[in-house]
Amino acid sequence: MNAATPQAAVQVQSVHKSFGAQHVLDGVDLQVAQGETLAILGQSGTGKSVLLKLIIGLQQPDTGSIRIHGQEVAGSDMRKMNELRQKIGFVFQSAALYDSMTVEENVAFPLKRHAQLSDADRRTRVQELLASVGMEEALGKMPDEISGGMKKRVGLARALALAPDILLFDEPTTGLDPITSAEIGELILKLQRERKVASIIVTHDVQVARMVADRLALLRDGRILITGTFEDLKNSHDAFASKFLSSAWQG
Ligand SMILES: Nc1ncnc2c1ncn2[C@@H]1O[C@H](COP(=O)(O)OP(=O)(O)OP(=O)(O)O)[C@@H](O)[C@H]1O
Ligand SMILES: [Mg+2]
């Protein structure tokens, strides 16, 4: 087996994951360099969310290797996992805000747990984070007082709190109108430009994938069927890949 490429921020090799008799991932290989954005596409139920959970260590693969900056995640102990997790921001499929906390408290939460900041410094940091996603006005609001798109932005601000160099997004634009989706896309592009994060974006939104991703990967039958630029996939001779993109893309 190849050693991890030194520059890979995330490297997944031969990962298998089953739930009972259901083989969800059946030998997944992918890698993302620092500063690169990879979009993962695939039909509902193909294991995209499972793959992200494996990368962040919320679930364990049955076999295979997952390295973050060269360090093995699969089978790591809790302490090491917590350390690695702080370098990774995770924007969940549902925004997953804490309903009983204000927007400010939601974003402050990871800082309280993992950063040694005075109350005043933490407040300032939360304000900066919310300003960076255009949500500074919502500081004192409760999650059920803001729209779905706003929740996604707050989820993004929270994921950025510990200045991660890897960001995982699970459906960052699902359920949003095209204009709000494009705004989230712009935010992701801004993060790439300003922070050179490595990102993996799981999405059904081919337009957003085209907008933000350097490469796209199509997950099918438990494996990455094809990887390439949007044009590569669209012009691919693989019937499923070209159909998948053209059915989702009317441009
Ligand atoms: N904890 C679990 N226990 C049992 N089965 C699971 C678990 N998590 C996921 N699965 C199963 O694994 C399969 C892949 O789920 P996953 O959530 O990764 O799909 P997905 O590609 O993200 O789909 P969607 O596009 O609808 O979000 C599904 O059949 C799901 O039921
Ligand atoms: Mg999913």
Summarize the structure.
This protein is an alpha/beta fold and 251 residues long. Helix content is 37%, strand content 25%.
Write up what this structure looks like.
The structure is a single chain. By secondary structure, the protein is of the alpha/beta class. It is built from 9 helices and 10 strands. It has a 6-stranded mixed sheet with strand order 6-7-8-3-9-10, sandwiched between helices. The protein has a 4-stranded antiparallel sheet with strand order 2-1-4-5, covered by helices on one side. The chain starts with 7 loop residues before the first strand and ends with a helix. The site of magnesium ion has 4 residues, from α1.
Write out key terms for the chains shown.
251 residues; alpha/beta; 4-stranded antiparallel beta sheet; globular; binds magnesium ion
Give the helix/strand layout.
Layout lengths: L7 E12 L2 E12 L3 E5 L6 H8 L7 E6 L2 E2 L5 H8 L2 E4 L11 H12 L4 H14 L15 H12 L6 E5 L7 H18 L2 E5 L3 H7 L2 E6 L2 E6 L1 H5 L4 H10 L3
Parallel strand pairs: 3-8, 3-9, 6-7, 7-8
Antiparallel strand pairs: 1-2, 1-4, 4-5, 9-10
Helix pairs in contact: 3-4, 3-5, 4-5, 6-7
The protein binds adenosine-5'-triphosphate (ATP) and magnesium ion.
Oligomerization category of the chains in this entry: single chain
CATH architecture: 3-Layer(aba) Sandwich
Domain module count: 1
Number of helices: 9
Helix/strand-derived class? alpha/beta
Pattern of helices and strands: EEEHEEHEHHHEHEHEEHH
List ligands, each type once.
Answer: adenosine-5'-triphosphate, magnesium ion
Residue runs with pLDDT of under 50 for 5 or more positions: none
> What fold name goes in the CATH topology slot?
Rossmann fold
Helix content: 25-40%
- Shape descriptor: globular
Would you identify the CATH H-level superfamily? Answer: P-loop containing nucleotide triphosphate hydrolases
